[in-house]
């Protein structure tokens, strides 16, 4: 197990390096966008003085390098800075109430996103793997084709389209679930769950195809191996051959695809959030880019990158652990 | 006991699908097996032995179908039986032991979990009964630590032990019939003995009927009561073992027997003082931090063949990698014509590279499948000799003639359009194209059938006489060594344990390990195994004997 620990440490170190590079790229990219926060907030009729004064207040008049390192120094001490928009609002109204730091602003949004991703994963992963196993078991039958066509159609349709279809059938025609997912802090868990269910189902439709098809392909790939033939020649049932003998050896690629899809659930769900008015991190991110609110954009990007890195690391570790050769060395 | 046969196959025809059409594999064979009888099925690769063996279980692989005939097992028509009925028989009354136990055990589960699966799923025994029985079977099969070995994963157990564990698994429901599909082909000779003895004992003990599939006559002679010889999907002849060995009636069977008779005349000893073509001097080598060679030294002279023998993992191929410069040694040096070669091939001159060529075990994977035969051979001709255009073509044609393939017919073919033996000839031509002095032949005949292998050996011998080539012949097959070697180097665990001229090496007294290797090679005498076991004593065969050294 010692080498697994080394791998984890190595990958974490590499992950930190990746985060640093991501932060540089994002910082430069946002600065390359036309206009800055001051121009955006004041609009076209703004006077030079007003723009300059906001820039001075926010430190935007400093050269890019010093702004970046100032931000980096803050992050290293755990301070992600303050949102330009909130600071501006505070200086304008003279109050300092509400969430002013980026961390305070992002935390509830991020928790919501994680909640939605979790609910989706709990539905989608078992469904996808079960469908994949069944599709492998009944390969090239009507069931296999229907499962493939359905999941492929759902992954090929735009997310908002799927979302509206679900709203139409589950909220409008048959009012089973609420079409608005306006969850807020202090909401009861059951209500929260109920409100998140439609976006979760939409996302399930989006991510299932990929995982299911990988499960099916990884299993079918193994069916020609001698140990599968041996299992069949022992007179085992086809279901047992697949679940007991093929699936455990097919886990590594399946785990990797699951990790990729989970990462997508954390980072790529803005369209679904908009449709269902779900207060997740995606909306906040898009809004912040629009007004060039760099501290928020940076923090969101770091969270997204960290999610990818951690999920892929988890996937690698689980792939290693699924291999008995590595779990039980000679 | 009823007199009806256990297995009755009549007029079975099997077809395999390739190139979008069904091609015959087995053309109507009858097979009858009595209870408790062991039938040997022998033939070259492609003769349809495995396909027939599996068909006796009512099973065909993907892309194979039974087009005609009947298969009856104990009165049950396996071809008409439902899938559920067949599943009830497979594993319970008919069991299978595969060629490669390492590939046929599921890497994700412990041996014991796989062993008890059959009895538990078939409702023969409870899990705990079956576990106790497994330990008993492991003990009967003389596996080390029978109480504990079942709780290991397949990769934690050696090949010979796995093969015995698989035999135990096949025995788990006490079947009436076991199909053994080349169970010892992938094993070293010393390990093979142990497995053969175990299989024979346990089959006798439980009076299990068996079909024993192999291409090795000497092995089948030890195991079978009766032998059936197959050739390209047809039966050549069937007779009981002793009759078959002493008086084969068909020409093909006789030719199989005769293969082992090829032997080159002995050459006079090397003159003292002559400079060896390649001299390996005190070479140590390691893969990463793991040392694999210790102080390996031997010489190879012009026009002579040095056979390097030993079991898998003994360091034969690693020595070859050191000589070619693929693996720079950690100590010692390699001399070419008395001059020190740079350890790393990247530092060697083109002429030094040209002098050392290699022929590989798997001609299939050693030839680029997308290049024509002409391109494959032309590449070294151009690279080393600098020939182009018509000159290059002439040289390639001459090389093809040297390896006895018609240039006009083969020049434009792809490797996939050649047989295994022909591919190996292309490998030889490619090595010759560089006009080397020294060629390393790494198990070049072990993937080939005996008749084809003999053709390759004769070709190599002829080329050696014509071109005074020096061969380093890596092999684990002592019959091949007898056929072509002038000197023999015996390796074990990365060291040279004995070396000398072939004549002396095959004459006692030997180093204990050489003796074990030599005496482990199966002979055509059906009593050979029995006598050998009696001679060595039960505790001192195969693995156990190796471990004691």
Number of strands of chain B: 20
Could you give me the name of the CATH homologous superfamily of the largest domain in chain B?
A: P-loop containing nucleotide triphosphate hydrolases
Query: What is the CATH fold-level name of the largest domain in chain B?
Result: Rossmann fold
The CATH architecture classification of the domain at 107-290 in chain A is Orthogonal Bundle
Instruction: Tell the overall outline of chain A.
Output: globular
The H-and-E topology of chain A, N to C, reads as: HHHHHHHHHHHHHHH
The overall pLDDT of chain B, averaged over residues, is 86
Structural class of chain B: alpha/beta
Please give the CATH class of the largest domain in chain B: Alpha Beta
Which structural class do the helices and strands of chain A define? mainly alpha
Q: Strand count, sense and closure of the main sheet of chain B?
A: 6 strands, mixed
Q: Between the first and last Cα atoms of chain A, what is the distance in angstroms?
A: 12 Å
Q: Largest interface, per-chain counts?
A: A-B, 23 and 30 residues
Question: According to CATH, what is the class of the domain at 107-290 in chain A?
Answer: Mainly Alpha
The best one-word shape of chain B is globular
Oligomeric grouping of the chains: heterodimer
Low-pLDDT stretches of chain B: none
Q: Work out the count of structural domains of chain B.
A: 2
Strand content of chain B: 15-25%
Range of helix content of chain A? over 70%
Helix % of chain B is 25-40%
Transmembrane segments (chain A): 12-33, 114-138, 159-177, 197-224, 250-276, 296-321
Organism (chain A): Yoonia sediminilitoris
InterPro entries (chain A): BPD_transp_1_N, MetI-like, MetI-like_sf
Membrane topology (chain A): Multi-pass membrane protein
């Amino acid at each position: 197990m010692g080498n697994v620990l080394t791998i984890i440490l190595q990958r974490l170190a590499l992950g930190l390096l990746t985060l640093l590079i991501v932060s540089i790229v994002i910082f430069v990219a946002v600065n390359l966008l036309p206009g800055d926060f001051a121009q955006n907030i004041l609009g076209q009729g703004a006077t030079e003085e007003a723009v300059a004064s906001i820039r001075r207040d926010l430190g935007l008049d400093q050269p890019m390098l010093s702004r970046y390192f100032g931000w980096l120094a803050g992050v290293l001490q755990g301070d992600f800075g303050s949102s330009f928009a909130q600071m501006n609002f505070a200086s304008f109204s003279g109050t300092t109430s509400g969430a002013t730091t980026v961390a305070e602003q992002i935390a509830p949004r991020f928790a919501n996103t994680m909640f939605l991703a979790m609910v989706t994963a709990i539905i989608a992963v078992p469904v996808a793997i079960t469908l994949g196993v069944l599709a492998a078991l009944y390969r090239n039958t009507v069931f296999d084709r229907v499962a493939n066509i359905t999941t492929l159609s759902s992954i090929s349709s735009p997310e908002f389209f799927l979302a509206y279809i679900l709203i139409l059938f589950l909220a409008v025609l048959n009012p089973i679930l609420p079409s608005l997912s306006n969850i807020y802090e202090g909401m009861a868990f059951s209500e929260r769950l109920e409100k998140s269910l439609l976006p979760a189902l939409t996302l399930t439709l989006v991510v299932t195809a990929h995982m299911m098809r990988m499960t099916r392909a990884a299993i079918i790939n193994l069916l020609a191996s001698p140990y599968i033939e041996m299992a069949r020649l022992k007179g085992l049932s086809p279901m047992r051959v697949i679940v007991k003998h093929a699936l455990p050896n097919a886990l590594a690629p399946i785990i990797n695809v699951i990790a990729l899809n989970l990462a997508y659930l954390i980072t790529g769900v803005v369209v679904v959030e908009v449709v269902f008015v779900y207060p997740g991190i995606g909306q906040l991110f898009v809004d912040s880019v629009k007004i060039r609110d760099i501290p928020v954009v940076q923090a969101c990007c770091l969270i997204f990158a960290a999610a990818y890195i951690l999920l892929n690391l988890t996937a690698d570790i689980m792939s290693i652990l699924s291999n008995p050769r590595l779990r039980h060395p000679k | 006991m009823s007199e009806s046969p256990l297995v009755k196959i009549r007029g079975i025809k099997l077809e395999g699908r390739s190139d979008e059409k069904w091609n015959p594999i087995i053309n109507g064979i009858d097979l009858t097996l009595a209870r408790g009888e062991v039938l040997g099925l022998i033939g070259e690769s492609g003769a349809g032995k495995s396909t027939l063996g599996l068909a006796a279980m009512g099973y065909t692989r993907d892309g194979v179908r039974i087009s005609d005939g009947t298969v009856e097992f104990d009165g049950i028509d396996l071809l008409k039986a439902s899938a559920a009925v067949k599943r009830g028989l497979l594993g319970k009354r008919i069991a299978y032991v595969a060629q490669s136990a390492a590939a046929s055990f599921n890497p994700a589960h412990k041996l014991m979990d796989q062993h008890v699966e059959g009895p538990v799923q078939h409702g023969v025994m409870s899990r705990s009964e079956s576990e106790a029985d497994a330990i008993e079977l492991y003990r009967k099969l003389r596996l080390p630590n029978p109480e504990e070995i079942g709780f290991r994963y397949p990769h934690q157990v050696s090949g010979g032990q796995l093969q015995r564990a698989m035999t135990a698994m096949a025995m788990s429901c006490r079947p009436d019939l076991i199909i053994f599909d080349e169970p010892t082909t992938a094993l070293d000779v010393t390990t093979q003995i142990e497995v053969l003895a175990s299989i024979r004992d346990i089959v006798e003990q439980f009076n299990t009927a068996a079909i024993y599939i192999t291409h090795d006559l000497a092995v089948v002679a030890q195991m079978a009561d009766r032998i059936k010889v197959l050739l390209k999907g047809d039966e050549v002849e069937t007779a009981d073992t002793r009759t078959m060995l002493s008086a084969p009636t068909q020409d093909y069977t006789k030719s199989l027997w005769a293969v082992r008779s090829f032997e080159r005349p002995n050459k006079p000893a090397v003159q003292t003082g002559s400079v060896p073509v390649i001299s390996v001097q005190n070479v140590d080598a390691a893969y990463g931090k793991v040392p694999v060679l210790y102080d390996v030294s031997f010489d190879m002279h012009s026009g002579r063949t040095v056979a390097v023998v030993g079991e898998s993992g003994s360091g034969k191929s690693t020595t070859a990698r050191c000589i070619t410069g693929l693996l720079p040694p950690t100590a010692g040096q390699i001399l070419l014509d008395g001059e020190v070669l740079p350890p790393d091939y990247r530092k060697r001159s083109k002429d030094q590279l040209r002098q050392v060529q290699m022929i590989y075990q798997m001609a299939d994977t050693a030839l680029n499948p997308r290049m024509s035969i002409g391109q494959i051979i032309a590449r070294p001709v151009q690279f080393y000799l600098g020939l182009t255009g018509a000159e290059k073509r002439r040289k390639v044609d001459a090389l093809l003639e040297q390896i006895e393939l018609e240039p006009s017919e083969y020049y434009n073919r792809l490797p996939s359009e050649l047989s295994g033996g022909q591919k190996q000839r292309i490998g030889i031509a490619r090595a010759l194209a560089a006009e080397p002095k020294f060629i390393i032949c790494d198990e070049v005949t072990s993937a080939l059938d005996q008749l084809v292998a003999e053709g390759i050996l004769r070709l190599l011998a002829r080329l050696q006489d014509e071109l005074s080539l020096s061969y380093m012949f890596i092999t684990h097959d002592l019959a091949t060594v007898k056929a072509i070697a002038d000197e023999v180097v015996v390796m074990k665990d990365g060291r040279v344990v004995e070396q000398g001229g072939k004549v002396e090496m095959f004459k006692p007294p030997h180093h204990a390990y050489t003796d074990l290797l030599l005496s482990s090679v199966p002979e055509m005498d059906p009593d050979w195994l029995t006598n050998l076991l009696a001679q060595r004593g039960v505790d001192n065969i195969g693995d156990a004997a190796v471990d004691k050294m």
